[in-house]
Design a protein that fits this description.
The chain has 319 residues and is of the alpha/beta class. The chain has helices at 2-9, 14-19, 75-89, 112-123, 128-151, 167-173, 201-209, 212-221, 227-233, 243-258, 262-275, 280-294, 298-309; strands spanning 50-56, 59-64, 96-101, 156-160, 163-165, 177-181, 185-187, 225-226, 238-240. The chain has 2 domains: 50-259, 2-enoyl-CoA Hydratase, Chain A, domain 1; 260-318, Lyase 2-enoyl-coa Hydratase, Chain  A, domain 2 (Orthogonal Bundle), CATH 1.10.12.10. It has 13 helices and 9 strands. The protein has a 6-stranded mixed beta sheet, with helices on both faces. It has a 3-stranded mixed beta sheet with strand order 5-7-8. Bound molecules: ligand LTDHYY67. Ligand LTDHYY67 binds at residues 69-70, 72, 104-105, 108-113, 139, 142, 163, 165-167, 189-190, 193, 198-199. InterPro entries: ClpP/crotonase-like_dom_sf, Ech1-like, Enoyl-CoA_hydra/iso, Enoyl-CoA_hydra_C.
Amino acid sequence: MLLNNLRKTGMITRNLIAKSGSVSVTNQPTRAMAGILTEKVDRHAEYKNLAITVPKPFVVCVELNRAKRYNAFNKEMWIEIKHCFESLHTNPDCRVIVISGAGKHFSAGIDLNDMIKLGQDLADIDDVARKGHYLEPLIKLYQDSISSLENCSKPVIAAVHSACIGAGIDLITAADIRYCTEDAFFSVKEVDIGMAADVGTLQRLPKAIGSQSLARELCYTGRRMESSEALSCGLVNRVFPEKEALLKAAIEMAEHIAQKSPIAVQTTKQNIVYSLSRPNQEGLDQIRIMNKLYLLSEDLAQAAAAQLTKDDKPTFSKL
Ligand SMILES: CC/C=C\C=C\CC(=O)SCCNC(=O)CCNC(=O)[C@H](O)C(C)(C)COP(=O)(O)OP(=O)(O)OC[C@H]1O[C@@H](n2cnc3c(N)ncnc32)[C@H](O)[C@@H]1OP(=O)(O)O
């Protein structure tokens, strides 16, 4: 289905299809990553709107790379994000992901030119039900694109600078950890383009900040929230003076997490995500069932031995 979508958009070549399921990685560091790229994850299969680098072992940086358009989400980018995170989910060379944006802003949200084009496409369809029939799978695709961050078993750290608007909020609220720069600002802008957010913000933002009142205020008004408020409400948990420091810290944290047992980290993420909207008992049931297998892992013995011997960097097999 995904491959068919990719083929239909013309964005994927036969070559890339042959390599699907593997991480596609550019072999050039982005400017932000210059000097810290140490190894490639895999063969080349380039994305048009994402730049992938590997600054440290098991740490993959995904950069929204449509800087000329302020990383506005066009259809191709939604598809590429989904493909990328689904691929990283199963890639044993990836343990933690850092997502950031190239250029002036993290993201200006959905590409408004794409929205206009969509309006024109819909105008060509006469029947209202058929318009809806056309629209529904597109919204589903965009929802799945955002959810691919949450569904990816590897922790995702969002590193936000400057504007993070609309779809940008959808994206970062599906991440595990959020850091930003002092100049970052956030806006749930959908209401200002005449729509209800429909790809994740309404579900995830209230949980991320733990305040229904603030979340609803932000969603009803589209008002700008500065980094200081984002920190105080818990949307982000660290703020840095500028982008370089932000990326450095995000990568350091990713590296730190990547040195832990991948069984422990990935099971933890899966259980936290599973438990978010379920009664505690259901979360406990899930982790009990998972751990009756995972407690038998070699990682547990190895990590426990490392604790006893004060070895702070035990090596774990790929997962
Ligand atoms: C199924 C639906 C799924 C998801 C839906 C998501 C909904 C959303 O994402 S709602 C949010 C939509 N985005 C916006 O409303 C952003 C509007 N833009 C801005 O607020 C600002 O441009 C800015 C991003 C804060 C940047 O400000 P600044 O640095 O001052 O640059 P500008 O001079 O304003 O803009 C330069 C240039 O960029 C164009 N542009 C900005 N945002 C978008 C966008 N989202 N899509 C397309 N183009 C965008 C802007 O029009 C300017 O173009 P020029 O041709 O240079 O005039």
